[in-house]
Automatic annotation (TrEMBL), chain A:
Domain of life: Eukaryota
Protein's name in the database: Distal membrane-arm assembly complex protein 2
Organism of provenance: Pygocentrus nattereri (Red-bellied piranha)
Family the UniProt entry places it in: Belongs to the ATP synthase subunit s family.
GO-annotated biological processes: SCF-dependent proteasomal ubiquitin-dependent protein catabolic process
Cellular component per GO, a single term: SCF ubiquitin ligase complex
SUBUNIT field: Interacts with incompletely assembled mitochondrial NADH:ubiquinone oxidoreductase complex (complex I).
Annotated function: Required for the assembly of the mitochondrial NADH:ubiquinone oxidoreductase complex (complex I). Involved in the assembly of the distal region of complex I.
UniProtKB/TrEMBL annotation, chain B:
Purpose: Required for the assembly of the mitochondrial membrane respiratory chain NADH dehydrogenase (Complex I). Involved in mid-late stages of complex I assembly.
Keywords: Electron transport, FAD, Flavoprotein, Membrane, Mitochondrion, Mitochondrion inner membrane, Oxidoreductase, Respiratory chain, Transmembrane, Transmembrane helix, Transport
Subcellular location as annotated: Mitochondrion inner membrane
Name the UniProt record assigns to this protein: FAD-dependent oxidoreductase domain-containing protein 1
Lineage: Eukaryota, Metazoa, Chordata, Craniata, Vertebrata
One Gene Ontology cellular component annotation held by this UniProt entry: mitochondrial inner membrane
Gene Ontology BP term (one): mitochondrial respiratory chain complex I assembly
InterPro entries attached to this UniProt entry: FAD-dep_OxRdtase, FAD/NAD-bd_sf
Amino acid sequence: MAAPVLCQMRRRCPVVAYLSVVRREYASSPPSPPSLFSRFLFQLNQHFHDVEHLINWSSWLRNRVVRRKNVFYGYTQKRFGVNVAAAYYILGLGGGFRFAGHSDWFRPDSRGKFSYDFLNTPNSTIEEIDLSRTLINHAGLENIVSQNELRSLSLQGCPEVDDWFLARLHVFGESLQWLDLSHCPHITVGGLAALQHLRKLRRLDVSSLPRLQNPGLVRILLEEMLPHCEVIGADYEQGLILTDNVEEAEPVRHK
Amino acid sequence: CPFEELNLGLLNQFKAFREKAAAAMPGSDWSPIQVTKGLPPERADIVIVGGGVMGWSVAYWLKKKEKVRDGVRVLVVEKDPTYSQASSVLSCGGIRQQFSLKENILLSLASADFLKNINDHLGVVNEDPVDLQFNHSGYLFLASPDVAPIMEENYTIQRDLGAKVILLSPTQLKDRFPWINTDGIALASYGLENEGWFDPWTLLNAFRCKAMSMGVYQCFGEVTGFRCSSQKAETTDGDFVNIKRIKYVDVRMPNSLEYQPVECAVVVNAAGASSGKIADMLGIGHGPKQTMAGIPLPVEPRKRFVYVVHCPDGPGLECPFLIDYSGFYLRREGLGGNYITGMSPEETEEPDVSNLDVDHDFFHDKVWPLLCHRLPPFECLKVSGAWAGYYDYNTFDQNAIVGTHPLVNNMFFVTGFSGHGLQQSPAVGRAVVELILDGGFQTIDLSAFDFKRILYHEPILERNIV
């Protein structure tokens, strides 16, 4: 392969598959054909370094939001203690929590504002956390691992929760009883295998995990792995290939 | 036939014209007339011999750490485009931090960090995100009473360096994994995080695609020789040694006699099981015994078998990568009750390495009895398949050899991993590139893996069993 020398800005065209410009999330359906603008941008990307750098910057900026949300709250931990830091982190992400021994939940309002009353109880640990639809990822979990009396964790619809996050959940092995993982797009069986450390788990919600090919089989395996746990969200028939004479019948719902 | 002679003469004329033009026009090696497709460029800064996961990791990090765009021209030479005998893709794909050497543990931890954020590192714009299919099931090592003290010491070292490992007594082991027969087990060590297995082909392809998108040249061909210049130097004892410097690497095209000498500044030997052959071509090992020149690179291919078995009563999702002190290993494969198992044979019973044929008697005679004893559910199983792959086995101390040879100025060894190359590849690639571009290790200090230890006869042995 010879190297082009004429124009500094031009570059070789590597053999790259032709897809849309925006980084594609996992989806079970095939991708839609890229728009004219995307195709134009891709051609420019192949020919000019400027455009290539701009596109790399845009994906870096997109990641920057997630990284900033999940930064380690080291100063808060040192100054106010681990419980306050965890509480502050959860409220900053937009989630809610409940202290052990209290019955009221701390949540930010629709504009993201929250009260700082949690500063008054620096010694109470958190018992239930609701992080649905927040941007938590495995790096942000560092802020919460100190809460060793955590009983319930809801991660419904979190786009950044992946298998590495689940692997880190072993720190709650002695206390976690409820775990909700529904609608998380990045979780696969490999991560669910890491849940074996949660010996006290009583309820696990695995509905609508798009990357599970055999939800029914995974449910059976999870029930075998965690015998005292109730796994909800997957029917035993899901993922089975139905033969012709069963297709007309109504699917029987198992408990 | 006169037309053939005319054609031949014409081709020779073109070649002569090209050479004259290249001599007359400085710098560029662009040529309008390409005689053969697939030839490597005539000049490259760094030639990496071997296109496995280690070679492509080095290529990626070279492009990542170059200070100027297109600052180094990197060429990766791989002899087999189908990767049919490459150790990288035939590997079981496990990654663990349970080693006894500090360097091995740090390399594994850094590689796990790399894999955690693999899309930040190896994501290519407009491509699918990289999906390693990582199973986070951890490694479980079982120890008999004699090796239990060693396991405890290793555990302390591992915890100090940040690996998340716990020790289990036989009762705790039985409680967690009731399908293990804890007869004869004194202690078990279980990795909680950053351990498991993944798809090696995906990692190799991810490195390759990213490196090629950053401008690394790939050539399918076999390295058949080197052209070096040598200089005499005097050692402190008064002996004279020949110090070589590689000037050209001869790359021969597949199924052809045609070769291209590639002029280069640095050569990286990442050839895996064939690294010994590459070192041999340079004359490393051809000299009087007891001198520096007489010690060859102690890396040779060793064949290892992997058997796929189906066991209907076997453990489910909780099955870790189990390694017993008797030497066999087992891990789950998929969700259908299939498992992968194997064992390292004794030193005296090493199988023949000329081909990758599988010896099924080895499973029946050696592996299955141990499997049945330790894991009773596996008494009824069916072998559904098997394959064999090569370890780039370091016969000296079974640990990596990273660094230069004192008698060859510009060849860097990245070989001898003896079965744990895949799990250390991202971190070792970065370390080698620091050595090449920065002159010394910056993040993880691998000076313990230098070639010097072979010359001084000081093996660094890994005390953990596999």
